[in-house]
Every structure is written in structure tokens, then in C-alpha cells.
Amino acid sequence: MLGAAAAARPSVRRGRQLRRAGALLGRTCPGRCPLLPAWLREVVRRLLVAARGRRELWCLPAGCAVGLLGGSVLPPLMAGAAVPLVRRRLAARRRQRERGRREDAVIELCGAVAGDLRAGRQPGEAMAAARCDALGPSWPAVTAAARFGGDVPAALREAGRQPGAGGLTGVAACWQVAVDGGAGLAAGLDRVGAALAAERDQREDLNAQLAGTRSTAVMLALLPLLALLMGSALGADPLRVLLHTPAGLGCLALGGFLEYAGLVWTGRIVRAAGGRAE
């Protein structure tokens, strides 16, 4: 196997060079001795393009592979049913990452504007020069209001409605107090940034303490797969028993229900410990 891989490496490298040259010259440069037919390569390419950025679709080929090994259509059907669940889980993780980026952007905004104010800049100029790309399309309205003399607190409150950008309401309050009462805006922004940073550090510390619980739950959830692999290694053929016998189908349904119930229960325990009512 190592010798075959070493022998195939030059041809693969040459194929990459030919494709790169074809992209530069605007023509197609087929590689030598393709391993797959042209129509099959096109199908694979289209599938990869369709699955790019949609990781939940990888459940389908995994279910089809298990169905081929077990000789049953049940695993592909289960994989199709798992696609929306995986999509929802991935979307929740993506929203959580975006929320964290917005929180970091608000903290950086407070520090940057406070530093510019201490350097001698006017509040509108300092706010217009700040960049918060993580806040999305609502941030240009804030910079436009600061640059052209608009209602900056209202624009900040509107941008603060996004998940993770709630600290902008504190920035708006500091701005309004500083403009109306003449208080120091830099000191207020420092306090808002320090409070947001302390809350973020506390949440990260709590997540670090809960990491062991999450990893334990994941390990327990993967134990049935390990049992199936061990049974296959011992020659027991557990897929045939689970997918082609009434007792196996009953055990599969009961085990799947208990697995889902355990994951939901553990998730609620972790969320309750984290103080999030999601």
C-alpha cells in the first residue's frame, strides 16, 4: 500500500499541475489515466459543490454506507431523518459563534473609542473611525449618524438588538449622558468595556468547567458504536441482528430512544448549570 501511494503521488501532483495550467489558460487539461469515468467524476464534483458549507448532508453518504454494509434501507432513512436535526445543531453553534464575535467586537469598540477620545479626538470622529465588521449591516448606520450628526444613541440601540451586541445599549447610555450632561465619555466606555469583559471571562470559565461534563456525555453517547465495532470484530454480525430481526429492530428503536433521551437530559443539565434558559 505504501509503494502504491508513493507511485501514485507523482501522477496526482501532475494532475494538479495540469488542472492549474488549464485554469490559467482557460482550457481543460485532462489528467493521465483517470481512475473514474468522466460522468462519475462530474457527479462527484457536483455532490461536493452541493455539500460545501452544508455539513449536515454528510449524514446521507454515511447512512448509505451503513445500509450497504448491513443490507438494509433503514440506515439511509435514519440518516435522512437526522439531517434536519444536525442542521439545527450546526445553526445553533454558528449563532453562538456569531454572538461571541459580536461581544468581542463591542468590547474592542469601547477600548478603541475611549483611546481615541483620550488622544484628543471628538466623540463623533472617534465613533465614525471605529470598525466593527462583526456587527453586520447595522453598524454603518452608527458610523453614518456619528459622521453626519445624526442620532447616535438611537443607532447604537438599534444595533444592540442583535444577539451578543447588548453592550451597545450601555454605550448608547454613556453617549447620551456625555452629550447631554457633559460627563466623561471615555471613563464611561472603560467601565462598560470592563463589565462586558468580566462577564465574558466568567462565562468562559464556566464553559471550561463544564467541558468535562460535555466530553463525558459525548463519550457515553459513542459507546454503542464502539460496541457494534467490537461485535463485528468478534464475528457476531450485529448489523444483521439489528436490521433484519424483530428483536434487533426492537432493541434498535429502544436504544435510539434512550440515546436521544440521555442526550437531551444531559444537555438540560449543562444548560441549567451554565445559567442559560435555551
From TrEMBL:
The chain crosses the membrane at residues 60-86, 217-235, 247-266. Keywords: Cell membrane, Coiled coil, Membrane, Transmembrane, Transmembrane helix. It is a multi-pass membrane protein. It holds the Pfam family T2SSF. Residues 189-216 form a coiled coil. One of its GO terms (cellular component) is plasma membrane. It comes from the Bacteria. Its main location: membrane. The keyword Cytoplasm does not apply. Residues 117-231 form the Type II secretion system protein GspF domain. InterPro entries: T2SS_GspF_dom (IPR018076). It is found in: Cell membrane. PANTHER family: CONSERVED TRANSMEMBRANE PROTEIN-RELATED, INTEGRAL MEMBRANE PROTEIN-RELATED. This is Membrane protein. The lineage of its organism: Bacteria, Bacillati, Actinomycetota, Actinomycetes, Kitasatosporales.
